[in-house]
Design a protein that fits this description.
Blueprint lengths: L5 E5 L4 H12 L5 E8 L9 H7 L4 E6 L1 H14 L15 H16 L3 E3 L8 H12 L4 E3 L1 H4 L4 H10 L13 E5 L2 E5 L29 E8 L2 E5 L2 E2 L2 H14 L4 E7 L5 E7 L1 H17 L2 H19 L6 H13 L5 E8 L2 E8 L7 H4 L11 H20 L1
Parallel strand pairs: 1-2, 1-4, 2-3, 4-5
Antiparallel strand pairs: 6-7, 7-12, 8-9, 8-13, 9-10, 11-12, 13-14
Helix pairs in contact: 1-7, 4-5, 8-9, 10-11
Length: about 400
């Protein structure tokens, strides 16, 4: 791969991405490094980031607020598709990657850069997600991944950075690798690499330990409009506020923790801990509302689509023809998914205890066992005869 003149680097402010700046310039002959930090709701981490990038040798340090786009254009489509990777993980970290890739590509166009770069290693999922998304958005851009090639340990990287005036981390580095955004946190490495080790309470920030949760249940009513969450307890909220407030409510009751062995894109298994309070509850509530508003065949067929959809997100194929085609299917199914779902939160559980919709196809007169019953019981006999005919013929011929 030919080296680049001007590079836009995805920047987190951590050791690896800081070291990428002098490394790209000194080792790979890059003339100019522009850093881009995406604000996706990671909170106070972004404070000193702008200054740090400039001190580390960046010519321009961009901090771009992507929170609204993140929820509206990435989280909401995933909720409509009930996307749970391996039926458990609601893709909180994976969903951020295509958006960051888009920001990099847009910044490269704006600043006339001929390449983009990231600090991912060769073992993780994120390198795949970044590289493939960037290829899909601009196949002519070079993608540089110094940390995939430099062969430095963390200690080596810190020492390399110190040579170029990058201060080493002040506090003793946490053994955990943590990624945070508005939708949740992912925690890996350190003692968690032993699948038998229970995650210590210190790794959790968004969800309370069960012992510290309220002793009374709390109910929350989530309103959806065409598959998109739009209100909490009958109060209309903008996308960021809805996620933020629901994270708070749900996390307080200890809901939203996931501990799983996950199959990575690169073929290895990894132990992952996630906290995704709001996202998990929203997907379960949304799926429940669908059971009230979608026909049986659409509901059942959509389950297979959801599995494929979650795989595409996880494996970095957000900007792909199949994903676009599935979006069209999902959006068509959502036209009638409007209504309210009532969730009871208590001691680590989020149980759906009620649902209503103007588009409900639940018919009380057909479902009831009281004297209001309008179902034609006599019609069942003929139906069963025809439905069971293949089984009867098979039995007669084989028994």
């Amino acid at each position: 791969m030919g080296r680049a003149r001007k590079v836009v680097l995805a920047y987190s402010g951590g050791v690896d991405t800081s070291v990428c700046i002098p490394y790209l310039k000194k080792e790979w002959g890059v003339e100019e490094v522009i850093t881009l930090a995406a604000d996706l709701g990671q909170g106070d981490e972004l404070g000193p980031i702008k200054e740090k990038a400039l001190k580390s040798g960046a010519s321009i340090s961009l901090v771009t607020d992507g929170k609204a786009d993140f929820v509206k254009d990435y989280a909401f489509p995933a909720i409509k598709a009930n996307a749970l990777y391996e039926n458990r993980y609601p893709l909180s970290t994976a969903l951020a990657r295509p958006l960051i890739a888009k920001m990099l590509v847009d910044a490269a166009a704006e600043h006339g850069a001929d390449a983009v770069a990231h600090g991912c290693t060769g073992k993780g999922n994120d390198q795949v997600r970044f590289d493939v998304a960037i290829m899909a958005l601009n196949p002519n851009l070079k993608v540089l991944a110094p940390a995939r090639e430099w062969g430095m340990s963390r200690e080596d990287a810190i020492a390399y950075g110190e040579k170029f005036g990058i201060p080493s981390p002040v506090k003793k580095s946490s053994p955990y690798s943590i990624d945070r955004n508005l939708l949740g946190r992912s925690i890996e490495a350190g003692p968690l690499e032993d699948p038998m080790t229970e995650p210590p309470e210190e790794v959790f920030v968004m969800t309370r330990a069960i012992a510290d949760t309220p002793d009374e249940p709390e109910y929350v009513e989530i309103g959806f409009t065409q598959g998109i969450p739009t209100s909490l307890n009958a109060q209309a909220l903008d996308p960021i506020s809805l996620i933020t407030q629901l994270n708070e409510i749900v996390g307080k009751h200890g809901v939203g923790r996931i501990d799983m062995i996950e199959n990575r894109v690169v073929g290895i298994k990894s132990r992952e801990i996630y906290e995704t309070p709001a996202l998990l509850v929203l997907i379960h509530a949304h799926r429940d509302l669908e059971s009230l508003t979608l026909t049986a065949d659409v509901t059942q067929y959509k389950r297979g689509i959801e599995e494929t959809y979650s795989q595409l997100i996880y494996k970095g194929l957000w900007f792909s023809p199949l994903k676009a085609a599935l979006d069209a299917f999902v959006n068509q199914t959502q036209e009638r998914v409007t209504g309210t779902v009532r969730v009871k939160l208590f001691k680590g559980n989020a149980n759906i205890v009620g649902r209503k919709s103007e588009n409900s196809i639940y018919t009380p007169e057909l479902a009831t066992y009281t004297s209001d019953d309008q179902f034609d019981h006599k019609a069942a006999e003929g139906f069963i005869y025809i439905w069971g005919l293949p089984t009867r013929i098979w039995a007669e011929k084989t028994k």
